[in-house]
Amino acid sequence: MTITPEQIDLWRSSASETQNLEFKEAKNQYDTKKLCRYCVAIANEGGGHLVLGVADRPPRAVVGSEAFPDTQDIAEKLFQWLGFRVDVEAVTHPDGRVVVFIIPARPKGTAYHYDGAYLMRSGEDLVPMSEDQLRRIFAEGQPDWLEFPALQNVSAQDVVQLLDTQTFFDLLQLPYPTDQTGVLARLLGERLIVRNSHGPGFDILNMGAVLLAKSLRSFSGISRKAARVIVYAGESKLQTLSDVTGEKGYAVGFAGLVQYVMGRLPQNEVIEGALRKEVKLVPEVVIRELLANALIHQDFEVGGASPTVEVFSNRVEIANPGEPVVPVERFIDGYQSRNERLADLMRRFGVCEEKSSGIDRVIEAAELMQLPAPEFLTGHKRTIVVIHGPRSFRDMNGSDRVRACYQHCVLQYVLRKQMTNQSLRGRFGLSEGSSNTVSQIITATIEQGLIKNDPNAPDSRRYARYIPAWA
Prior knowledge:
Elements: H1 5-12, E1 21-24, H2 32-44, E2 48-52, H3 71-82, E3 87-93, E4 96-103, E5 119-122, E6 125-128, H4 131-138, E7 149-154, H5 156-162, H6 165-171, H7 180-189, E8 193-195, E9 202-205, H8 206-212, E10 228-232, E11 240-245, H9 250-264, E12 267-272, E13 275-280, H10 284-296, E14 308-311, E15 315-321, H11 340-348, H12 357-368, E16 375-379, E17 382-388, H13 398-414, H14 421-428, H15 435-447, E18 451-453, E19 466-468
Helix pairs in contact: 9-10, 10-12, 13-15, 14-15
């Protein structure tokens, strides 16, 4: 492949650097160790191009690079250092010499390392891949946990006794078959069960059990995957009021799980007009979407852990096993599931929304009710979402306000709009007299590298618009 100046200009016009594209100025020389590390990281992320001689900030001017005058020599050295081949081309652009490293994708089931570090990119930095990410890579091409049998060589009668087939057909809005053969045929078609390869019966796959089990306790290998709901007396874990573990499969038990959690939430008194009314700490749409996410996007390979809901007097924390596939700061606009077939079935059951829209709804609901912005966190082998109860703007700290500003900006961007001082005032329920306060929040969010001025907006503070920093 020959890289042309026109291709360089096309890359420069990209809205932002991507997994497959990295720009570096490198006018004179470029550190070979850093070069090796970037080649490894880009290969681990699916391959792409490292471009030297182009500024990495818009408008990405071609500054020219004198690095690596002998492209064949550096290509040979990279092969010796890395163990995989990287092609190198020098492109004569009208504005200067550009050096392009064409980096292949790693083979399936393999990750590359340099000096023992399996690298990936995180913003401007190169970081080691997590244990969770490496395990997923090395398991590529192997059967997924959900595709393994939970029970083997059981009879047709056992299948319909162990799985809630009536609710299965109800969720799909299909009439229940007139005979057992029709029921089994549908389960086989969805690969929730398979015919046993050695006996006359059927294998119930983990997918079928985790979704449709009448009782997860009937399946010893997945009983620990049941959702757990813990309710505390106050804002800490000192006093536990209840600790209950669900029994039903995720699909057949989802509506009951949502209602159970809603029934355990504290109530707040609000005044609407002249009337006082009791409302739940968190709206049902938020609980529903986050519970669905926790069930669907968990890492089933993490042993001894299950989706957990913890209810406090002032917040709800929902956690699932496994670190997220998508960075937490991209939850609103990004989508990728480690359990795509499970996610597809749950969508068809009506349990969750279309791809990536669930978190959007959570943020929209928080803004509509002027709640503090949800927190998306990663812990050791788990992902946590914290939903805070009502708190006035005055009682929000700086971190709360910046987080809300960033989430509002991303949500507006997803909706093909831009955040303004006015729109952010509306998110916080503030009057026009609070413009200076909101400007300070916007400035703090810019300084943290989360948002930036829209380069296409008028050059005026009054009419300024803002977009996410990664846009």
